[in-house]
Amino acid sequence: MNSRTRILITVAALCYGLMMPKLVTSQSPPPNGSQMQIPPTFPTALKEEEATIKALSQEKVGPLYMLHGNAEIHFGEYILYGDEIEYNSDTGDAKVEGHMVLDGKVNDEHIQAQRGTYNVRNETGRFENVVATIGARPVDKRLMLTTSNPFFIRGKLMEKTSVDHYLVLDGTVTTCELPNPKWQFNARKIDVEVGDTAKIYRSNFALGEFPILYFPYATLPAQKLPRQSGFLIPNFGTSTTKGFILGESVFWAINRSMDAHLGAEYYSKRGWAPQAEFRARPSDSSFVDVNYFQVLDRGIGSPPLNEGGEEIRVNAEDALPHNFRGVANVDYLSSYLFRLAFSEVFTQAVDSEVRSIAFLSNTSNNFYNNFDFQRYQDFQSATPGDVITILHAPGLESSTVDRQIEHSPLYWSYDAAAEGVSRTEPGAQFFSPEGNASLVGRFDVSPELSLPLHFEGWSIRPALDLRDTLYTQRLQVSSNGVATPVSADINRKALEASVDLRPPALEKVFSREWLGRKWKHVIEPQIEYNYVTGVDNFAKILRFDERDILSDTNEVEYKMVQRLYARKTSAKPENCDRPGMPLLFIGGAAPPTHVPWERQPLPSQTACNAGPESREVIRWELAQKYFIDPTFGGALQAGTINVFTTTAALTGTSFLTVARHLSPLISRLRVQTSSKMDLEWDLDYDFKVGQINSSTVFLNYRIGPFTVGGGDAFLRVPAQTNAVGFPAQQFNQYRLLAGYGHTGKPGLSVALNMGIDEDAGQLQYAAAQASYNWDCCGINVEFRRFNLTTVRDENQYRFTFALANLGALGNLRRTERLF
Predict the structure, then answer these.
(1) For residues 540 and 713, what is the distance between their CA atoms, to the nearest angstrom?
(2) Residues 159-183: pLDDT tens digits?
(3) Total Cβ atoms within 10 A of residue 257
(4) By CB distance 3.0 to 4.6 Å, which of 61, 237, 286, 612 could disulfide with 811?
(5) Nearest C-alpha neighbor of 136 from the set 120, 154, 148
(6) DSSP codes, 419-486
(7) How far is CA 292 from the centre of its chain?
(8) What mean pLDDT do residues 694-701 have?
(9) C-alpha closest to that of 196 among 160, 239, 218, 164
(10) Is 768 exposed, middle or buried (0-12, 13-18, 19+ CB in 10 A)?
(11) Terminal Cα-to-Cα distance of the chain (whole angstroms)
């Protein structure tokens, strides 16, 4: 090495040594404190990432940084704070004194401690006198939860042994916000594995500061979507007919998409009640749910009456390739008496119908093909065997929408079915030639040809329909009027001609504003003529469903629909405040099979938007039929209730007992002034006898957190003059409800619901529920009363104390609450 080279190396080394202290050390704090990035060329770089340190003042001795006052170290997704930090850039170790804080985005942890140590490279540390949150992020002096399972931890010593593992000694854990949690576990040792479980050893469960239960070992879910096998909190309650109730269950997380809930309750006055639920989600487009409930009843009364039984419900669906879809909705009920005695929901307890259906369907190019199995049961009373059972097994149905014939104005469609059907009921049963109950073959096909025409707002649609139905059995009517099924084919052929005439709708837009809205009134008239001939064997046709009640008719139906629309003239958005209790309302828009008091999904609400709002405020439909042929081709039997296709299509209320030209007037009124108000009144008025056949009215209204509602259901069943002991029957029932709050409201929420049977002069059903929610727990208490004739006279007292992410103590199940 020559002398020139030696001189250059010596000068470079001296200059580097003189410049380095000025680069990283400063005893006087610059404005806003000092900030420095460790150059990535340093051998102490953090996993090839930059680490940033900040403090009011800094010192450096070799790889050791001493940070004084408001010290911070930023590394990766973490920030380490402290009054004093001693940081070794070679090892990544940091020693913190005073107001130590570690914030991380990986698990959204926020750890506060008096002092501690932390290694920024392997993300491990030790903290003394610690208060920590996991799964919650501070935002503007408040905590924002970032997972469904946040943890709030206090302890004398906390160790972080890996990114997702924490160990706490002599501490507490809760899901309530500190420093005054509503409940907590005081434990000698808490082992938290984020994404798995929190294991708690030798702990006391405390409400506030008062210990309640001792647990040698307990677990809490630590997953974002927790599913962990194990025993659940026992439940207990009391009932005047069941006695003291004590239950226990276990949850089995079989795998990621499958679980089961198995348990049993003991009724001190009745016996054991096992129950189970199985759920599976094999794919995004498929699911299977199975529910089982049974009561092993010792009996009640003297002599003891056994009201036990079981019910199994299966719901499954799957979307299959090539536009196929499979669905199963199966309900098995051993006896109606069991449902009346033990169902905890009033509408389920009084529902005497049991429906099961399973089908495989295909929809392609507007052709609809279904292969199905159906079973329908209607329990006439609680007496064993008093049930009507109708079976469709198997059945193949095919249909299509109207399809144009080439380029002509004509359209065609069809409906066809090939089924095996059977029906059993007390005193009647369909037999095979061997005398055994069997399926009746039924083959039905109905092609239709139509010619829709439009002219200057007028719409007219004449149609011609041919229907041919073949049965493998028929009814044979004896001389005394008794119908007996016999094994002999019968063919029903019918020709149906119809004309649907719709004049132009009458419209008027009112120029004057009222209530800040512009109004529009629309009147839509409709006239339909229908003629059916060829059904000369109606009395010999077996009855299974709507396909079997076709009769001759010659009739005219006239209908008028009035609509009143309103449109806000301002761009003020609709009031989008959180409504009242979403599941607490009476009735709702539904098909004719709707049960007026049935618990429904959320009622329809117009979406909130910032633009002017348009709404159909009133819809009023009036309809009536004039029967040119009052005997329906001789199918009508005077003195008994007759149900034909034409009458069932008009109303679900039976009215035809004698020959008549005019049907009752059908009125359907719906008023919805806003998304928070709903009024509906369905009325059938019979001018021939001058009386109301049926009337169902209900009103629901929400204002802020308040919900009120009421309804009345009236039905008059006509007398059958040729039936001994069958006078006209009348039913009139009321429902009232009121509520304040909703399920997620902090603080107090209350609700009351009751049903009154005016004819029986008694309270059928009543329920009152109150709940109070804190940030991490809530309590629900409920009184419920059933008074179902002579079967059930019961008062229930139920409660639930729910702990966030832990479970619930009590016997008030979520699906059985008022809200």
Answers:
(1) 36
(2) 999 888 899 999 999 888 888 888 8
(3) 13
(4) 237
(5) 148
(6) EEEEEEETTEE-B-TTSSB-PEEEEEEEEEEE--EEETTEEEEEEEEEEEEEES-EEEE-TTS-EEEE
(7) 19
(8) 93
(9) 164
(10) middle
(11) 91
What's the number of CA atoms in the CB half-sphere (13 Å) around residue 414? 11
- What is the DSSP track for 581-613? -TT-----S--TT--TT---SPPP-PPP-SS--
pLDDT of residue 597: 43
Cα(393)–Cα(330) distance, integer angstroms: 14
Structure tokens at 809: 């103590």
CA distance 247 to 237: 9
Question: Scanning the structure block, which residue is given the tokens 């004057």?
Answer: 512
Q: Encoding tokens for residue 697? A: 């009215």
- Residue 574: pLDDT band (50, 70, 90) is low
Model-level pTM? 0.78
Structural tokens at position 670:
């719906």
Contact between 264 and 258 under an 8 Å Cβ cutoff? The reply is no
Q: At which residue do the structure tokens 């019968």 appear?
A: 490
Q: What is the pLDDT of residues 778-796, one digit of tens each?
A: 899 999 999 987 889 999 9
Q: Which two tokens stand for residue 138?
A: 């501070």
- What mean pLDDT is predicted for residues 586-594? 46
pLDDT for 124 equals: 92
Question: Residue 755 above 60 pLDDT?
Answer: yes
Strand segments, DSSP code E, in 40-104 are 52-55, 57-61, 64-75, 78-88, 93-104
Question: Which residue type does 431 have?
Answer: F
What's the pLDDT tens digit per position in 304-363?
Answer: 889 999 999 999 999 999 999 999 999 999 999 999 999 988 888 888 999 999 999 999
Residues 440, 420 contacting (CB under 8 angstroms): yes
Which residue from 676, 677, 818 is spatially nearest to 750, judged by alpha carbons?
818
Contacts of 489 (CB under 8 A, 6+ apart): 470, 471, 472, 474
Q: What gap in Å lies between CA 317 and CA 286, rounded to an integer?
A: 5
Which pair of tokens denotes residue 766? 């009543």
